[in-house]
Amino acid sequence: MTTAPPSSSLPPPATPPVDTQEGIALAAPRSFAHATGFVYDARMMMHATLADDGHPEQPQRIARIFEMLQRHGCIDRMVRIPAREALRHEVESVHQPQLWDRFESIVKLPVDQLKAYSNDLEISSSLYLNMHSTYCARLACGSVMDMCSAVAAGRVRNGIAIVRPPGHHAEPDSGTGFCLYNNVAVAVQHLLDRPPGAADRVQRVLILDWDVHHGNGTQRAFWNDPRVLYVSLHRYENGTFYPGTHYGHYDQVGGPQALGTSVNVPWPCAGMNDADYLHAFQRCIMPIAYEFSPDLVIISAGFDAAVGDILGGCLVSPTGYAHMTHQLASLARGKLVVALEGGYTLDAIASSALAVTQTLLGDPLPPWPTGLSCSMAGADTVARVVRAQAPYWACMRQSLDYPPAPKEAGVATWATDELYLDARAARLWANHQMMPLPAVGDALLRNQALCTPSTMMPGTQTLLVFVHDMGTWHIGDPDDPQQPALFLADAADDMIQWAHTRGFACLDLCTTQSVSVRMLRNGERDKALPRPDAKPVKTTLEAQALYIWDHVCALSPAQQIVFLGFGSGCDALMHIIANRVVQDRVKAVVQVMGLQPIPLVPKQRQELKAWYLEHSLVLCPCDHPLYTWNEQQASGKRLGRVQRALESNPMQVLLRAKDALDTLLGAPTAPPTATPAPPAPVVTSAS
Amino acid sequence: MTTAPPSSSLPPPATPPVDTQEGIALAAPRSFAHATGFVYDARMMMHATLADDGHPEQPQRIARIFEMLQRHGCIDRMVRIPAREALRHEVESVHQPQLWDRFESIVKLPVDQLKAYSNDLEISSSLYLNMHSTYCARLACGSVMDMCSAVAAGRVRNGIAIVRPPGHHAEPDSGTGFCLYNNVAVAVQHLLDRPPGAADRVQRVLILDWDVHHGNGTQRAFWNDPRVLYVSLHRYENGTFYPGTHYGHYDQVGGPQALGTSVNVPWPCAGMNDADYLHAFQRCIMPIAYEFSPDLVIISAGFDAAVGDILGGCLVSPTGYAHMTHQLASLARGKLVVALEGGYTLDAIASSALAVTQTLLGDPLPPWPTGLSCSMAGADTVARVVRAQAPYWACMRQSLDYPPAPKEAGVATWATDELYLDARAARLWANHQMMPLPAVGDALLRNQALCTPSTMMPGTQTLLVFVHDMGTWHIGDPDDPQQPALFLADAADDMIQWAHTRGFACLDLCTTQSVSVRMLRNGERDKALPRPDAKPVKTTLEAQALYIWDHVCALSPAQQIVFLGFGSGCDALMHIIANRVVQDRVKAVVQVMGLQPIPLVPKQRQELKAWYLEHSLVLCPCDHPLYTWNEQQASGKRLGRVQRALESNPMQVLLRAKDALDTLLGAPTAPPTATPAPPAPVVTSAS
């Protein structure tokens, strides 16, 4: 994106432009510098679906918000900023010219054709159009632009732009997800492009997008621009929630020139509440925002995470929105613009917008409810964001539990994961005389392969091939004085012990493909090193898995082989299954999932598929994404026999693999143990 | 403390009381509910020192603040709340009756006697008095009470009490540190004691004390009261900074009925700046405050951490104070009272108070400066606070880097420290055939003792006894792709290797007396378990040290023994020196300090002291508290030969012990190495 040409050189725009400066000067003279501005214009209700299908992005959305503000006396205390259409060259500072032309030609089609086209568009791009759509989109965009300009220049203190259609899904080359043009992105680009000395010129902008969907368009527009910090909290769910790509994951941190200026808080499920949002704000968003120190803050304010929203499924209350607004108001001398994005339940968006507006006006915040606490999913997500952003923000490194690395060289160091593997090797040698096998692949991504001596001994009946992630680091339960501050919980040794009691030989491949590796990979800046992606980790583990198959399993005298996968080990075992002939010897495959997607049934050959369906079982934690939100999304996929465990902790589920293996092998039932057997899990889906 | 009796049953007070409710009703009728209140009364300047010594707690403090607020138009925008004297029974809700009587009798002494008494008092208790002191103290206390009542009842939105003498050092049974009565504590107790249904009754109060000194009096008043969350940020410096006790340390978390309701952020040195304070607010204070959810917030606002304060030595700017105020204003519906405590440089306190008042009035915050970052000392302190408070606050557990412990039982766990010791034992066995010695003492506090076979072999010349803390956990340097997320840095193996090259036998005693143990200890709630203190850890290590002396060193054929202590190992070695006869065999003692106090030269016997001074050397990191603030505080102590290293990282200093040991032993200089020798450290103090 380059600086827009001076307007004198532009062709006359299609609609009569309103001079930005004057338009505002009329509504908000100098004396309004402490006031809160608003834009509302009923003309933006003209954009509506021709299909008469009760589309959630309905015209009444903005009217209802306006009425609520009026009823509570807010409008009387605010300064109106007139709506105005964005000009073509302004829109094109973010979007490609073809997009403007395409939309303009569509909306001029005869109604029947337009209706048909819009139907197609809605299916392909979640976007509807009528004859007024581009006019409304220009109004929405221009209004956000003028509001941002007024706040940036100090003509009003802060403001809210009650506009539609929304903008944050609109990418430079396409309008999608109810969005034609990216209102906020165009407004920000405009202010960044203002000439030096202009009153409304800005140098650094924070866009905080609390719409329940990831603002892919806004992130794309400023992906590689270090002047714009884009922060989004949204449902992600392994990339299955709209817009349905990996682009909103916490490891998406910005382009090579702007690492750390995309901050994604990707909720793994529905139901996130005020405490989850507050935790994200306190733990990472506000510290990063302070370190970035913007001179303008824009909230891409979808209210579809609000309690009661028909699409969002989250639980943010007006109180939550007010507190987030208050925190953001501490930045940029309080220069804060709220621009409406999504939000589809009229009562919910109106009461949310009211709370935000009252906060803009300086009213006392509603009190924070007692007894509300952040969910496990929320805390875990935020912790991952902190680690992903730590390479780029000093505040994220400082707020980690342990001090940053000292600068001085010369002191030897050991990584936690390395210590764990060393200690585990010593332990398994002492307990089971397990011996190391050679490691292959990238030395940085440490795998550890160990096997019992019986693996290669004649007479061995059964060989368990156990490929698994290392356990999880936890902080101790404060009510349990036996627990230390930080510890690793891992059921892998228990599985080895179980195999020992069954008389199985055991080949154990443990991978430290954990947080530390991910952070390390993110930490590699794009200097001399090529930018890595998640590929090498997987490839290394798959290569190691093939190696142990070829060099150990294939040579083992064991009569039957049993596969047990855990976490990323599941994919590694599927890699063996897909690339080697295993059906003759492998009698059982049990895959224990963490929160990652379930591997698909191999479909290269029909008989391989049939074999897999007969001999395999997938165990899922009870809160696996398969079950949390949209159950039908997962159905119809070819996942094999999937069982939902009663437990949410994957380590607990791993312990259930004992029974599953016994079942598949037709072995005698487990010997009586001290603890009673758990209730049988429920089979939920089968291909 | 019990509810105060209804005032009708009280004896008539000594001074004519002003009815609290009416007094305010006059000044602030209902229409002031959105206004900011202030108390200022020049009569409080009558408290002054008789000694004419330019005492820093000078009358002009409050006048200068008032003038600054007036000059900037704040006073015109505020509502005045009249000053009034606190009544005896009100003061006695916090203080013992003897205190009131004692002060009243002193101030009625003839001037000469009063002057002499005041001089004595200033030496013993840092408190001066004149004939007006109790009158002013009653005014200050009553004014803070009325301001808090007005805000609690919603008669004004928030307010500032510009009062003196200050109060936060005054404990229930004594006035100290420029404080007679504890203004804030009395005000809070009064509101807590109000009858149900009273407009100004409160249930939970947050007192945020940002005075640079710990508010020992306030903490004491509510130590065991779960209704009051007392949070203090202050210089601590191993308990040497005023008030000079352990009571302001981060492990002081409240009494058994109120664990977690004292939150201390004890800065280890001077020079803390806005970013350090912001980090503490974001990382622990605001999350805890939200979880506590007070219905009134009071800032014990000393401004002696301000840039330029003659006593404080810190660097908090008006911007910093404004931002902290804004954050606190999000709590309790914005019911926020600012009560002046310390602060001794007139310009600094006036501009700080102005920034705070403008924030109370809702003015935009000054922009946060770019490029300001939290210090290593600040980040480390806050991390310790987080861990100390984690047992009592869900938000602190959730914001740790690793997820909380899963509730389900049955999954095996390994503590990081345990893993480290296991891995280390395996490594030192592989490299040096070091073997384990029995451990003694508390099994929870794991020590690991290892020795080389040569320890007990005839012909061994020298035995190195190395007692040390385990290394430090760090997060990786993001610019170094070789570093993982979390790792341990430890120079202990390097010392073992060095001893090996010197031909020394080696006895290594490593202790995990680390953060995890401390947190564990704090985590033991006062239910069935007795409340632990720091004693057991030290005792265990000392017992283990004596054991290895008696059972190994005393029996070793080695001709000379060398002691090397690191961290808490220093005290353990001193315990051997003090309790066994070691002078004949121990030829050198090198103590490498972290940030803990330097052990004192043993003085039980004169010849022991002489021996120690001749054969020992203490190495300190360059930022050891001995050097950071008050150099003369350390002088005159009997610390032996202390060398200040060039490095701040204790692990780096440990590596310097090699040269120190060579020097003490008169050994040949170190063989040439790849790195040039560092400049000789400077001897700074000798007993």
Automatic annotation (TrEMBL), chains A, B:
Q: What is its EC number?
A: 3.5.1.98
User: Which compartments does it reside in?
Assistant: Nucleus
What's the chief localization of this chain? nucleus
Q: Where is the Arb2-like domain?
A: 424-655
Q: Which UniProt keywords apply?
A: Chromatin regulator, Hydrolase, Nucleus, Repressor, Transcription, Transcription regulation
What family is this?
Belongs to the histone deacetylase family. HD type 2 subfamily.
Q: What is this protein called?
A: histone deacetylase
Q: To which species is this protein native?
A: Malassezia equina
What gene does this protein come from? HDA1
